[in-house]
Design brief:
597 residues; disordered N terminus; alpha+beta; 19 helices; Immunoglobulin-like; four-stranded antiparallel β-sheet; four-stranded mixed β-sheet
């Protein structure tokens, strides 16, 4: 009987809707990317309020979406389609009439009918799709398929050429010529020259490829990543593609420090010269980050009131300085390798115990400050975003101790649009490159140093190198799983890029070891791939990073978009700008121009 009543009510509403609401539907707003239209029809004799919250927002307070007047009135609103929404309808007495969770899709028009129920304390909410949404992931699927085919061609074509050049038929054909002796001498000379080059060239190709891959992803992300949410930073806890790039760079810095300093020490460069070099390089990175990448002519007249003091290059520069200092003070251990001791399998760790002790003390300092420092009007050890999160109890506690320390040191000279601002409705500035997170940035770089030490200690023992990379990846991965409890928000220490939490460092350390191991096996051990095209920006990383930051938002790298209804133009622009910088890096590589500091 109840089912028949609902069906009749639904048919009645359909008739009313088609006869009286046509003009309203015709005047719907034009939807942009990641938006859908939601129309509510209220059959109840009293006004209702529709509230919502995002399922990605941790324990967030419901926010008002729209009010719908009584007795066959309707109201429409535009909603964001990035994440699943929890929606509830309340009466004027704050009683919850109905509630649902749904992922709305881009470009769709949805109708919700709020109907009477036999139970006076609640209502029935029925859903209908007026206009089917379009496939928002079609552009990235097409782009991924195109890039995959292009990459396959670039990999297969050189492989076929190499096979043709080394085939017996080609060698026999070449040797039939009267010029055989001359050609034979030329081949030997070329081989000798190649051998000399190999002896001289000791640069780790996989490291350049790793750096170039990270930089390419960073450029793509900075151009907007096609507008897709997973190519943007996570609102607070959790990981997206954009959150992977920065720790990869820090990891690579640590590995490069070990390999570069070992090379310079073998050439007889003293500690004083090394100290001068790292001081100069740090000063240049800090200057670039603070004076050039902090400000653009688009921002208007420069003002100290909004100038950001922390930054990406500032953190990279300071992290590099600390790691390099550790290597200068306690890095001369290659000649002390010994066999037959109980600690021989761990000599790449034991011989560097002063460095490990320093890192353990730094991490202890981070843990003590994070969980024990009293923060006014905030609970100790708070790691949340504040705002409307955590049931709205701590609105001004964004970042806990990390945010408090940065506010005390920098005041308002921090990042004013943190990733949590839109979803969590925060009002406090918060800088993801702040002071406390820099401690864990050093720890992340030290994991990269450990990778460099493994390469140095077990040179030409590729199985040992790969096995140790996998062991470290396993240890760090298990640590991240324990700290986060394999959840996004409920762990002891959630994975959080804004805070550079310990679980974030261990998780990214695991991924970095795995990625470096894979690239090392493919490029340096098996020589299946030369690293193109990522090796080109990887060998000119400073130029590409600074260049795309200063010039990236000018033509021809980007332009003002006209088609904002879908991801097509934004994705094309992101890929186009990224490809141009890879081409620029390739041209510089051909001209043997490498910007170094």
């Amino acid at each position: 009987m109840e089912r028949i009543t609902l069906v009749r009510a639904f048919v009645t509403l359909v008739v009313i809707f088609t006869s009286g609401c046509g003009a309203h539907i015709a005047s719907v707003p034009t939807l942009k990317m990641d938006q859908a239209l939601l129309i509510f029809h209220n059959q109840l004799p009293h006004e209702v309020e529709v509230l919502y919250t995002s399922d990605y927002c941790y324990k967030c307070v419901y926010q008002s979406l729209v009010h719908v007047k009584a007795s066959y009135n309707n109201a429409s609103t535009v909603i964001n389609t990035k994440f699943t929404l929890s929606v509830q309808v309340e009466s004027n007495k704050n009683a919850i009439l109905c509630r649902w969770n749904q992922t709305y899709e881009e470009g769709g028009h949805y109708t919700v009918w709020i109907l009477r129920s036999d139970n006076a304390s609640n209502a029935t909410c029925l859903h209908a799709v007026d206009r089917r949404p379009h496939n928002s992931y079609l552009p990235i699927l097409v782009a991924a398929l195109t890039l995959a085919i292009t990459a396959l061609l670039f990999v297969v074509a050189p492989y076929i050429c190499r096979k043709c050049r080394t085939s017996k038929f080609v060698k026999t054909t070449c040797c039939r010529s009267p010029q055989h002796s001359l050609d034979h001498d030329q081949v030997h000379a070329t081989q000798a020259e190649g051998s000399a080059t190999k002896v001289k060239y000791k640069r780790l190709r996989s490291l350049d490829v790793f750096r170039g891959f990270a930089l390419t992803v960073m450029v793509f992300v900075n151009y907007g990543g096609g507008g897709y949410w997973f190519f943007q930073h996570a609102p607070w806890n959790g990981l997206t593609v954009a959150d992977l790039v920065m720790p990869w760079f820090v990891f690579i810095i640590g590995t490069s420090v070990v390999l570069a300093f070992r090379s310079m020490q073998r050439r007889g460069v003293g500690r004083v010269q090394l100290l001068q070099k790292i001081t100069w390089r740090t000063a240049v990175l800090l200057t670039l980050g603070f004076c050039f990448l902090n400000y653009s002519p688009r921002d208007g007249p420069l003002s100290w009131s909004w100038l950001r003091i922390p930054g990406v290059l500032q953190r990279l520069g300071f992290t590099y300085f600390v790691l390099a200092l550790l290597q200068i003070l306690w890095g001369h251990k290659e000649s002390q390798q010994k066999e037959g001791h109980w600690w021989s399998p761990l000599q790449d760790v034991v011989l560097y115990w002063p460095q490990w002790l320093t890192i353990i003390l730094l991490e202890t300092l981070w843990l003590c400050i994070t969980f024990l420092l009293p923060v006014p009007n905030c609970p100790r050890g708070y790691l949340g975003a504040g705002g409307i999160g955590d049931n709205g109890l701590f609105p001004n506690c964004t970042g806990g101790a990390a945010g408090y320390i940065d506010m005390w040191l920098f005041g308002d000279n921090m990042y004013r649009y943190p990733t949590c601002k839109e979803m969590y409705h925060t009002t406090q500035p918060f800088d993801p490159e702040g002071i406390l997170g820099t401690i864990n940035s050093i720890v992340m770089g030290f994991l990269g140093m450990q990778a460099g030490k493994i390469i140095v200690f077990y040179k030409e023992k590729n199985i040992h190198i790969l096995c140790r990379f996998l062991v470290w990846a396993t240890i760090l991965g298990i640590s991240a799983a324990i700290l986060s409890k394999c959840t996004r928000d409920e762990g002891f220490i959630p994975v959080n890029k804004n805070l550079w939490s310990l679980s974030y460092v261990t998780c990214m350390g695991c991924l970095s070891f795995l990625l470096l191991a894979g690239l090392y096996f493919i490029t340096d051990v098996m020589s299946w791939w030369g690293g193109q095209p990522f090796i080109y920006p990887g060998m000119n990383s400073i130029f590409v990073y600074v260049g795309h930051t200063l010039l990236g938002f000018y033509f021809p790298f980007s332009w003002e978009m006209r088609f904002r209804e879908s991801h097509w133009e934004w994705l094309f622009q992101s890929l186009w700008g990224t490809a141009l910088w890879v081409i620029v890096a390739y041209l510089l590589y051909r001209r043997k121009f490498f910007l170094k500091i």
